[in-house]
Structures are given as structure tokens and as C-alpha cells.
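Thread: Modeling a multi-component assembly for a lab meeting

Hi all, long-time lurker, first post. My supervisor asked me to bring a structural picture of a complex we are working on to next week's group meeting, and I have zero experience with this. I have the sequence lines for every component (561 residues in total). Could someone generate the structure of the whole assembly? Inputs are pasted exactly as I received them:
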Amino acid sequence: MAMSEHVLLRRRSAPVHTLEEYRASGGLAALGWARVNGREEVVRLISESRLVGRGGAGFPTGRKWEAVRWAEDPVRYAVLNADESEPGTFKDRLLMETDPHMVIEGLLIGSFVVSATRAYVYVRGEYAEAARSMAEAIRQFAAGGYLDGIRPDGGPLEVEIRRGGGAYVCGEETALLRSIEGFRGEPQPKPPFPTEAGLFGKPTLINNVETLANIADIVARGASWPDGLGTAESPGTKLFSVSGHVERPDVYEVPFGTPLRDLLDEAGAPAHVRAVLLGGAAGTFVFPKDFELPLSYEAVRASGATLGSGSIMVFDDQTNLWQVAERIGAFFLRESCGQCVPCRLGTKRQHEMLERLARGEGTGGEPTLLRRLGQVMADASICGLGQSAPAAVLSLIDAWEEGLVPA
Amino acid sequence: MDHDEDDIRQAVNRLIRSKGPERTHVLEVLQGIQERYHHVPREAAEEIRRRMGVSVAETYGLVTFYDLLTVKPQGTHVLRICDDVICHLKGAPDLIRTATERIGPEGQPDADGDLSWESCACLGLCAGAPAATRDGVPVAPIAPAQIRSGDGDE
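Re: Modeling a multi-component assembly
Sure thing. I ran the full set together rather than chain by chain. Output:
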């Protein structure tokens, strides 16, 4: 038996195109259950399920929903963050292209629970097919009358699609909201959090695509769904985008707690892997001595790494990791919004040093300087982009000092 | 390539009628203009100022912030070549060299304005690396031979 589970990806092999097909495959039951049992029951299920946000930060979904639900302002928004742009990540694209109804059903249940007066779907500008697929699903939900009765006043919920403009930083929630408002996607200091003062200053629920893909099953099948999969602290399954030097680059769904090595074997990693980059450009390098690492939030956190967006980039033993690091540095340099100094200048200086190391022209001082610079960026940048831009580089320097990586 | 000022104004107004005149719709209007004119012409920014109250300077700020909007005209067709971690390992440098030879410098349309290319951040097509998009449609993997191959593809 293949180790991959098919919970979130169960419709992948036979994508659903109409609401009727979606209903026939078990869809819409959760939305019906929510309407009958009410907001409080739904949010209780989500909290009991221990679902945490899959966008990277890992915040408990139930707590976020409660925060917006109890906000004082009667005008609230629900936003689907479909601005997937972390390098090496393509699982949200797959979900939107092959199972858009399940994602939208999750968004509608979230909108219902927080009494949203309007919902937005912010799809990455480069994801044309995903945007088409989501727009068609929304049209079908509207035509079937499923947007009626979601709003607290009983009226139909308007679900609006917005397309990103090609800016990685807009995946950061406050930047995304600025973009919807019609501004440059510059992150805002938190607090206030979007749950209190988000879109147009109103309480706003923002969830990632994969997070919302989990909702309908939990509501329809119970808080312990999917029973027995995952670990006590990280129940359920997780999507991983595996790419690089593997025979079968693809999206894999595995139960939390699956050892990294098993996933690498499944994807056809070569016998001699130099390292994997776990969590995307904002993630950390993991080396073969640690490939038994269980892929759960708690185990990965304890090891000092991050699951991030669930990206796994695999590098064989012919790869010069300093050249990989140079690409990571170039990415953050290109995507820094330029608003705050530590990130604007830090990504530039970091990239200059990485270019030297990648060419083998290091002057010897780079590791120390990169460490100091990384500390400043992590401490003083406004948002997660600048804070996490040095993470992969620093993990590489650690490995180099341990003798795991040639200079 | 000069466009008729009236044509640009009418296009802005059609977009505003369909999306709405509020600030929240300005990116949608700009995306529509980019799609039609392959850049955001100055006249469009001025019409946006008149109809939406967004200053020309602010529109310039938006266009230069978002990678998919451009101040300078792109080609009628745009090839975007991913040059991020995985695509770089799998051959993006060769693609970029070929594009430079056959099309011209990055961001500059060829002589007849038909085609331009640019490198870009990860497109989420890593499973098919090296990846590119042509007018937003994925081409993954893409080989150097497919770039301006003369068969009308790229």
C-alpha cells in the first residue's frame, strides 16, 4: 500500500466539475449541517478538531474563527488567501484546480460562522487556471442558491474574486488586505490583528486554501476526522509539494508524523541526497542525519525547523548549496517590498555575500557577517518576509560549521 | 507603440463601469489596462485620477510595485521564465541565455513588438521544472529549442 493518504486529495484522480458531482461525492453535507446546527456548534467542532492554519504560521483555526465571531463590529469580512507563492509550493494550486468546491464550501462555512457580510477570494495573479476554476465553482454555488442565508441578515453572500499582481509579500495577511483595498501590498505592524481591524478596518477572517479544504470534512464527519491519522498534537494529514532531484516531483498527502525519509522515498529521491530545503525559501535546510524527522508541527518545531508551506526541495550530492542559497537570497531581494530598512537593505547585503560564496570568492568573513545581519533582520523587520529571509542561509552556515557542507 | 488617447480613456471607463469607481477596484482596472495595452500608459493613469481620485504618482507606485503591471510596453506576447531555486537547477540559465539571443534584452519587446521575455519568481510549476508561462499559460517543462522556435509556439 502506498503511504500517501487520500483525504484532502481524494477527488484528485476524478476532479469534480459541477455541484451535482460534488454533492454525489459527499459535498454540501457540511454546509447543510452548519445551517441546521448553528454557528456555535460548528466552531466547537473546529476547535475540538485542533485544526491549525496551513499557511505557515500554524495558528489554531478555531481560535481565529472565535475571535472574528465575537468582534463587536457588525460588518465583517472573510478572505481566502490563495496567494500561494512560497518557492517550491504548489499544493493550493492543485486543490483549487481539482477540488474548488471543497475549498469554497469551507469558505462559506467560515463566512457563516463569523457572520461575514462579504467574502473575497484572493488568487495569485500567476494562477490563471486556479482562478478560472474557483470562479466557476462560485458561480455554481450562487446559481444553486447556496450563498443565500450565509449573511447574518439572511441575504446572499457576495463572493468576489481578486487576482494578485505578482508580489510574494501579498501572501502576508495584512499586505494581502492592503492589496484588496487597492494599495501597494505593504505589510502593516500587528497588532491590531486582522481579526479585530482587517479589511477596510473591519474584523476579518483570513484562511489559507488548505486550511479551508479541511473544514467540510470536519463539520460533516466530526472533530476526530480523519480518525487515527496524524499525531496527538497534529491530527490529520498535510500536503507537501516535493520538487527538485526526485523521480516523481508532485504534491503528496501524508499523515502528520510521517518521517521525512519515507516521503523522500515515496517521491523517488536519489540514494545520495545532500540536503532538503524544508518549508520553502523561508524554511531551513535539513541534512541526511536528520531525515528520520517526523513531519509534525511539534517535532519540526523542536528541531528548530519549520513546516512552513509544506514545501520540500530535494538536492542531490552534486548540488552546490551555496548556489541554492544565492537563489534564495535573490528571491528575497526581488520580493522585499522595500518598506522597512532591515529588510530592504538586509536582503541586498545578504544577496551580495551569497553571490560571493556561490562563486567561491568568499573573503572568509561572510559567515560571521551573515549571522549578524540575519539577527538584525529577524529582530527588526516589520513582517515575516524580512524576519525569515535569513533562515535558510543561517541553517546552511550552521551545517557548514558542522562540516556537513563544503565551503 | 502609441495608442489613441480616446481609446485608452474609453477602456479605463469601461473597466470602471464594470468593476466600480472605488479605490478597492483600482488594481482590477490596472490589470485590465495591462492586458489590453501590455503596459499601463500615462493616459490611463490620468483617466484613473479623474475617475477614481487616485493620483498619477500613486498609480505609478502601484504599477512599479506589482510585477505583473509595467510602465514600459511589453511585447504582445510575454514569456515569463522562472529563475528560482528548482528551475535554476534544472536549466533556467540556458533558457535565459537563449531568450536573450533570440528575443533580446530582458523586458524589451523584439523589433515588431510581438514578443518580450522576463525572468520571474517561482510560478508554482516546480514539478515540471524548468518552467515558464506564455501569456499566463504554463509551459513546463520548457526547452531552449521552444523559445522563438519559428513554429509559432513561443
